[in-house]
Design brief:
Layout (H helix, E strand, L loop, with lengths): L1 H24 L18 H12 L9 H14 L3 H14 L5 H16 L3 H14 L6 H15 L3 H11 L7 H19 L6 H17 L6 H14 L3 H18 L2
Helix pairs in contact: 2-3, 3-4, 3-5, 4-5, 5-6, 5-7, 6-7, 7-8, 8-9, 9-10, 9-11, 10-11, 11-12
Length: 260
Amino acid sequence: RRKNKKEESRRKEKIRKEDIFFFLMIRRPPKSTLLPYTTLFRSDKALEYFQSYVNSADRADLAYYDHAILEIGLTSFRANNLTKARRNFEMIAKQSEKNHKPYQIANIFLAKIHIKENRPRQADKILSHLAQKVAKNDTLQCEISYLRGEATFQTQEFGQAADYYESSLNPTNVAEEWKYEALYKLAWCYIKLADDQLKSAKARQGFCGRAENLLLKLKGTKVQEKALLALARLYLISNCPQKCEAALDQQIATFSLNRS
């Protein structure tokens, strides 16, 4: 009995040390994956340690088991190993508590995988369910809306996609670089709606105006090059060839300047 107690004591001490070391390796997950969920170290050794950590004891005995599985999934996702990433994210989605960040982030990335693999309806199903589990004032709701915009854009529901992109633009929480991407995608929704021949001339003109305003605001940002191309496309469908040519000239000048 004494021997068994000593062995159990050593086992718990080992797990405690594993937990402490793992805690030192991770940062507290941010409220949104717009600011990447990251570790302090992104090396092969760190990945080996995550794997070693989850294999060191049962899930119930490891305080950061879900975080480690999530890290393995995120590393696989960045390496474009979507099969391995999905396997780890699904494990968290099934096992982790619904109000914990690992569960929420795992579902976000499962939706991203579905979008990457052109399964928008499966992505939207995950996101719709997740939106009900996340607090309304949580900035993760912004990313959920953005990804639902991506999914519905794929299914060519451009009006609905525009609504989602607009919902994602919470000015107090959205990172600048992501805001520009959302505005660019929103402009494309308006371009698609403006190109819908079944809509009235007045409605199409209104969508053209909205798209133009958004794309002009994107000058000088990191998405300027593709915004100018989108602007040229907008002027083309608006039957404004001179404006289209001017936008393309600007795009060529910007392209040349950035590579000189």
